[in-house]
Amino acid sequence: MKNQEVSRIFRDIAKILELKGENIFRIRAYERAAQAVDNLQENLEGVIKKEELTSIPGIGADLSVKIKEIAATGRLKYYEELKKKTPQGLIAMMEIPGLGPKTVKKLYEQLKINTVEKLEKAAKSGKLLKLEGIREKTEDNILRGINLVRKGGERQTLNSGLLLSKSFVDKLKSLKAIDDIEVAGSVRRKKDTIKDIDILVTSKKPKEVMDKFIHLDLVKEVLAHGETKSSVIAKENNMQVDLRVLKHESFGSALLYFTGSKEFNIRLRQLAIKMGYKINEYGVFPATSMKNTGGPASGGQKDKKLAGKTEEEIFSLLKMAYIPPELREDRGEIDAALENKLPKLIELNDIKGDFHIHSRYSDGLASIADIAKKLEEFDYEYAAICDHSQSLKIAGGLSEKEVYKKLKELKKVNQKSKIKLFAGTEVDIASDGTLDYSNNLLKEFDVVVAAIHSGFKQTKAQLTKRIVNACKNKYTNIIAHPTGKLWGAREAYDIDIDEICRAAADNQVALEINCYPQRLDLNDINVMRAKKHGVKLTLGTDSHQLNQLWSMELGVAVARRGWLEKGDIINCLSLNGVIKWLKK
Ligand code: DGT
Ligand code: CA
Fold it and tell me: What is the pTM of this model?
């Protein structure tokens, strides 16, 4: 059981109770409990074992029984009953970003709207304006929210895809009947969003494997059950998971085929044809034997197969370098591999620090000393503690006075810390492009990370100018999450990325790859563009809790998909290198 499963259930309960107009204290109790579980630094199962559930702030006797029930059975009867008694449509409506239980209740009671479809229709025809507090802008936001949920429903974040794949692979790995196992598809390519999960295995007992697969406790529904392929819907996120059982001798070609991307496959097949080969999921064959190689049952293919056991074997037959999965998007990687000019992609091991961590001074949960201690688990030389600036009140932005207090504490912690902690700030870029602190204060920081947190609805020209202005401030080192995308809540805002890259390059400002699971901003395409402009990139986890620091690996995935090498990323510099770079 994951902590997030519990907090999600508690949060849902709070929403349903609010919808039903229940006692506000009960609602707050569930919200507080959800927050407490999210903030927990260890797994709930461990806490249950130690019988320390009630020592978590906000978890009393009643909630601790509920947590134990979820741990033991994977569900909570009380929650299931509540959901049963609430119209499904209202629950779905509450998933729309910006639409809370209060508004949903009003919509239901006053306009009889009880499904997302009815809501969409009403918003489109301006009927919502009848409700008090709803303006045209609100209607637009609701429509945008509905679209986001629909899109989000089709695809999930890379992080969700990776976690779910891992759950399945861990369970399947314990089966003796399985020999090799690999995740293919967009998960293996580490694409920023994932539609479904493709798992490949080899086994001499396909029937047994399939039987175990469809009965895993992770499975909610079985869509198809065959001897070589089965599809299920996972309980988590309702994501589809496909499992294919293959023969050992064609594992490499199947892995290549099902890793994709489709565009890459098409290009590779064209190349193979030019070289006189036919390539498919069963192997590589001489083009002349085309008719014989349609499927596993086709006769005589064995003696004609030229490669197929491993991907390496296939790339080598095609006289090209091995192409890492992250590059397989038909963006020039095939030509580069033929000319042996593929980039030497960065790896997690190359990362020597994190440029974006929030402490308790603003909206983070950990103290600077706790962060320093936790960072010892990573092989880092430095990290920047960046808290929000004064205007961002909802995120606990620091006043000038608080900044000096933080700087003092940082100095103290640094004396004992094994790694260098940079004094950082995530300073707000105001709507006119000025920064939220005076230059006098900015010069006190080692690292100035500038970012937009409001005024998203400005025009493209205004937003672009704002960021360009921020780049021109001589104290700015990094622009954080440059496009503002927040998965499931906000689309990227429209900016002229080339103009921003030029300003960044001219002013020795780096652009961030924000590693926060819902952001991954810049994305792979924009990273490639930044590199073309000669812009350096930094990776920052934007951690608000200690258990978020690991998300550096998501940023590394984006960097790899953007063809980045060590020299492109400031986090690959040694401490001295970074200090030099900061003194631009
Ligand atoms: P997604 O949408 O996140 O699931 O992305 P993928 O890449 O995992 O796409 P998926 O699951 O539809 O298919 C897995 C791989 O199978 C895909 O990357 C390439 C291969 N594939 C699927 N359909 C085709 C096709 O029509 N032609 C070719 N050449 N390859 C295909
Ligand atoms: Ca897939």
Answer: 0.81
